[in-house]
């Protein structure tokens, strides 16, 4: 075993339940696969030998619940024992994890290359001497950015503002958009603020606090801070009781599947949404400074649109002199078979800002136009403004992605998984509906008539799967997910359908 991966010590109960027998079968399926695993110490397959949670898990949850709200708890995990694509619980149950911490683990649990980066003197320094980056960046901060985050900057964007999380990345991108817009209206970076502006802003009134907006889409999810939450339209529970800005929302295309059979209808639907977007840009009383969009609406139900739709949005934002922000918090860093999902669109000009977090383990937004730097210091600022330790980790993730060619790998394994699901959808059309994500790496989803039961039961077969929206089963495996993992997943999906 490598220094970092433990040999799996799978619990083998004396009397196996029917489902534990099922996982044994899955292990045999794997044994026939010729593919070389990326991590030789990964378990051969999932093993479930107790109820979930089991006795140890129950005890730990009860202890936790005394001091921490556990009502959203999905699985109590034991991270030191988790390996690659597999997450373990305190009872020794081992799950193939295709949810991966809400799509945020890129290269596997306890990845040795990341563990090595974590132990480096550079990381230790970054962790224990956390800088207030705007004021006291370290003399190697430029090099950390240039050898890490910026090596994977989307085409056309060469600068970054680092942030703490996805919501924060979007929130700061919106602020950059508003400052850019007002600077244009004011007549350039050197025109000073008026007395009226500096007075009114202290009362949260215009013109200092201007009547501008960010346009987002129905069912979008952009985060939970105040600005980002105003652009989030996924579920009421995400927004209730929180004051929000009166900002416009346009319809996001509701495509019909299979796409090949509904090409004309879908094109009409996208044209309708673009028309609505343009109308809102022109008529909303608080004019948008930017349009923000996810390449694939993720939390809102895995809703896709065509490259033509996104090219249409780029065109509209150019036409109306507003910014185009692409929220790649969930789609970014390889999962769609391209490093950035918007690379699938063949845009005539790059987005103005691309926000990222999750699999990057750090967060922020990329941009290219120097006018997106505010005209004065301290306008886009907070104590930490990101975290060098997390930026160093992203650099190690990028190296691991390159070493194993994981973006191309994910495109290929995604095609394999999609083909398997398409086969199952043909056999069980009532159980696998609206299969989507063809050609989008492993960023695949389908609707299930009993979605919540499907997700719950998947655990007892040893697979951790997430949902999105009301009915979607969303697959978000890591970039190290391979064909033999896909075989296990497909086998479990079929068992769940039959059960
Ligand atoms: C597309 C998208 N944007 C923003 C966010 C918010 O990110 P965070 O939860 O890190 O604040 C999420 C989180 O799921 C997301 O999926």
UniProtKB/TrEMBL annotation:
Molecular function GO terms recorded: 4-aminobutyrate:2-oxoglutarate transaminase activity; pyridoxal phosphate binding
Record-level GO BP terms: gamma-aminobutyric acid catabolic process
InterPro entries, sorted: 4NH2But_aminotransferase_euk, Aminotrans_3, Aminotrans_3_PPA_site, PyrdxlP-dep_Trfase, PyrdxlP-dep_Trfase_major, PyrdxlP-dep_Trfase_small
SUPFAM superfamilies: PLP-dependent transferases
EC numbers: 2.6.1.19
Cofactor: pyridoxal 5'-phosphate
GO cellular component terms attached to this protein's record: mitochondrion
Origin: domain of life: Eukaryota
Catalytic activity: 4-aminobutanoate + 2-oxoglutarate = succinate semialdehyde + L-glutamate
UniProt keywords, alphabetically: Aminotransferase, Pyridoxal phosphate, Transferase
Family annotation (Pfam families): Aminotran_3
Family assignment from sequence similarity: Belongs to the class-III pyridoxal-phosphate-dependent aminotransferase family.
Protein name: 4-aminobutyrate aminotransferase
